[in-house]
Design goal:
This protein is α+β, with helices and mostly antiparallel strands. It has two domains: 15-85 and 92-139, no CATH class; 146-222, Ribosomal protein S6/Translation elongation factor EF1B (Alpha-Beta Plaits). The protein has helices at 3-6, 17-41, 50-69, 73-83, 95-112, 116-139, 159-166, 202-210; strands at 146-154, 171-182, 187-196, 215-222. Strands 2-3-1-4 form a four-stranded antiparallel β-sheet, with helices on one face. It is rod-shaped. The relative contact order is 0.10.
Length: 228
């Protein structure tokens, strides 16, 4: 009775509904895995809540497109032309996020083309690469917090000796920023850029300087929070 309806689709892709369903569900699963890898490895404070979901849907949609195209070159070019009218207004700020978009596209195409191992191994390798890159980022993490030390001493004090020998064991790095006098030459006023060693706290450094003869005042400011 409904043969005239089914006849309109007999020349479509030669795939059973059940097989199509399995492929699309597999694409959905792989898309979800991609989004989980993204969320676990990309700690982006500006992350759009819709981006991980887009990766999942993109994987399924590309799998569908692959089924539609099949081996028909003319249909492939037609779909390219049709999809070219789509405009995406959300800017991908991080180029590495673009890699996830491409990954979702490739995995969707692989599932649609029955290349299941390409999709599975590809996701595994990308996840492994992200893990290794994250470990490298941790090792190359930003160095210790930098401080600005503002110190006033008596004019007869050797500031270089104070910094190098007096507190040198507490410092990872020191650099003179400014040097001047106060109270008509009776005081020396200096500012240093410092980076403390891992086992030294700012409070420890202040206490060490306060106990030194000739030190009139000490101020330690975290870099970026002062006017220097």
């Amino acid at each position: 009775m409904l043969d005239f309806l089914t006849a309109a689709f007999v020349h479509g892709p030669q795939i059973s509904p059940l097989e199509l369903f399995v492929r699309l569900m597999t694409a959905l699963l792989f898309g979800w895995i991609i989004s989980m890898v993204y969320l676990k490895t990309r700690k982006n404070p500006d992350l759009s809540p819709s981006f991980p979901a887009t990766l999942v849907l993109l994987c399924v949609l590309i799998a569908m497109v692959t089924q539609v195209i099949g081996d028909n070159v003319a249909r492939a070019f037609s779909l390219v032309g049709a999809l070219s009218i789509v405009r995406f207004r959300t800017v991908v700020r991080d180029t590495q996020d673009t890699a996830y978009v491409i990954l979702a596209v490739i995995v969707g195409m692989a599932v649609g083309a029955k290349a299941l191992w390409v999709a599975a191994i590809g996701i595994f390798v990308v996840a492994l690469a992200e893990l290794l890159l994250n470990l490298r980022r941790i090792k190359q993490a930003t160095p210790s917090t930098e401080y600005t030390l503002r110190i006033k001493t008596t004019s007869n004090m050797n500031l270089d000796d104070l910094i190098q020998n007096g507190i040198g064991q507490h410092l990872e790095m020191s650099e003179l920023i400014s040097l001047g006098t106060g109270k008509r030459g009776s005081l020396l006023e200096a500012a240093y850029r410092l980076r403390l060693r891992g086992n030294t706290s700012a409070h420890t450094l202040i206490n060490v300087l306060d106990q030194m003869d000739g030190v009139e005042s000490v101020q330690l400011l975290r870099r970026g929070m002062d006017d220097d």
